[in-house]
Amino acid sequence: MSDLTPAERRQKLIELYHEVKACHACPLSATRTNPVFGMGNADADLMFVGEAPGAEEDRQGLPFVGRAGKLLDELLAGIGMTRKEHAFIANVLKSRPPGNRDPQPDEIESCRPYLERQVQLIEPRVICTLGNFATKLLTGSPTGITRVRGRPQERDVAGVPVVLYPLFHPAAALRTPAVLQQLRDDFSGIPELLEQERAAADLPGLATVGAPEPAAPPQLDLLA
Ligand code: SF4
Known about the structure:
By secondary structure, the protein is α/β, with parallel strands linked by helices. It has helices at 6-21, 55-60, 67-78, 83-86, 105-122, 132-139, 145-148, 170-175, 177-187, 190-200, 218-223, and strands at residues 39-40, 46-50, 87-91, 126-129, 153-157, 160-164. Strands 1-3-2-4-6-5 form a six-stranded mixed β-sheet. Iron/sulfur cluster binds next to helix 5.
């Protein structure tokens, strides 16, 4: 565990946001409207990592704000959580690939350090990888999401010991009702997983902790 205070952690995330905003490390900087850094609680024990911004995310500069984002919020509400209070949401790529094409390996490698630094600063206990790209990147395995979804895996991500919990991407769930049901089933396992990880780390359980002070998305603070 780092010895950063919550304020220091948040400040360092804001500094990282400025780096992402100025980033031209891959060609996506030329076609994006806004970089999408991520949003949520900088002290969250739970992180979600998706693939890349879509059209609406690119327009607003915020992650998961389209239909898939609405579903993510609904799934979170179903387990008594909100993205502002209980999670930090980010993507593998911080800039939108044109036409929502798949991320390219060189783009993923260029952007990976930002995600790793987010994990190092936030120090989540559980990371839900959403879909194939995030799952393969963070598990370090080519095994696809269909075979690993809903199965927690202990991993080291950028020097931070975490439990990875691969889930279908909400966008895939919107296309296929059976996938949506599996995503709902897997989501219901998140609170217990968090409780287990908190107990293992000798931290207070969710039920005994007051709702953490929500950290405004760094973008909103900086643009205000
Ligand atoms: S995708 Fe990542 S590496 Fe590429 S320009 Fe955006 S922030 Fe930089």
